[in-house]
Amino acid sequence: MRLFVAILLSQEMTDALCQTMQTLRQHTVAGRFSRRENLHLTLAFIGETNRVAQAKQALSSVQADPFSMQLDGVGRFRRDSGDIVWAGLRKNKSLEQLAQQVQQQLRQAGFVLQDRSFAAHLTLGREVVLEDGFDLRSFGKTVPAVSMQVNRISLMKSERIQGKLTYTEIGFVGLNNDTDRKS
Ligand code: ATP
Ligand code: MG
User: Fold this and answer.
1) Which domains does the chain have, with CATH numbers?
2) CA–CA distances in Å: residue 66 to residues 100, 108, 151, 173, 179
3) Nearest-CA residue for atom 3 of ligand 1
């Protein structure tokens, strides 16, 4: 199956992202926007594997305290077939360290991950062609700077069910829920 590790988003943050997508859609010539239930932040992409127990085991070794993260504007990755449009997050050491740790634990467990640096983004749309002259940067400033607490990381399964891209949480690890952790 196809696996990835993600942070699932609060209702409040999801609401803000849905609002953002709704407005963006009105300024879009083409594109596929994410379904509400699919919004997430990817920490690591594992890809096709049947080593589910090993992935869970690797994640259970992650040691981090809960932290908060905050929305910050929108941006795009340019592609020939249309852009990936995303919502950004305010620069966040805890988040970067968490992603690094997750990737390191997975690599130690023998998973082969892409060797590119982590750039936190929340994908809103794919193959997006924006209206001519639409100022994405200025629009981004209108997105509310919603914060949320991150308390867990989730192991996600990605599949197509009746043609619909569907993500399912198949495991999770709470952050700093290890009661006998020495401080
Ligand atoms: P689709 O590929 O059907 O357009 P998707 O990209 O959302 O949909 P997956 O490819 O299963 O679905 O990816 C799951 C998550 O992992 C998404 O957040 C995606 O952006 C991320 N992801 C996918 N491939 C990679 C990759 N090679 N490197 C890093 N992250 C990836
Ligand atoms: Mg993909």
Assistant:
1) 2-174 (3.90.1140.10)
2) 15, 23, 5, 11, 14
3) 165
